[in-house]
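DM from R.C. (forwarded with permission)

"hey, sorry to bug you on a friday — could you get me a structure for this? deadline for the figure draft is monday and I only need the backbone to look sensible"
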Amino acid sequence: MRHIPLAMLLMLPAAAWAHPHPHAQVHGTGFVDGLMHPLSGADHLAAMLAVGLWAALTGGRALWAYPLAFVTAMALAGLAGAGQSPLPGVEPVILASVIVVGAAAALALRLPMVAALAALALFGAAHGHAHGVEGPAVAGYPAGFVLATLGLHAAGLAIGLVAMRVQRPQVTRGVAAVTAIAGAWMTLA
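My reply, with the result:
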């Protein structure tokens, strides 16, 4: 029951959008702004945490391949999106990433590696494009959002691996279920 306040915070509609308006530009100074962007919205935070959770539950090569596929596509799309206009459909794909990756982890879904990596790359590209469009076109900004993303993936991996080590995979699956439910809630906000 200690985790209910966190779940409730993730479901707050105001916290759901890292992007206050689809055409809003967040002008910042670089690294710190990039670092804070994935941490400032529940949509990014939940999806990136869920990637690590899913990787931990899948194990093997997924431990590094899932986060790497997401963050590589995110970084490339972020660079491509810098200074561009938002693409239609990016926000729904970001929300879908929270639901789909959270549900995949909650269900301990084992997809063929190619399918999982393709889905994670698509979702990573959507997150990256949003980061790139909304951030300043300075070198430190992408480095910041990549580092924050890797940190969130590592947090998900740590939760999952510790839970697996103590024979409690249901903890990992429960946290993942909360992310999927939060994503569904965000679609209604």
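R.C.: lifesaver. Residues 74 and 124 are 4 Å apart (CA to CA).
me: no worries. Residues 1-27 have pLDDT under 50 and may be disordered.
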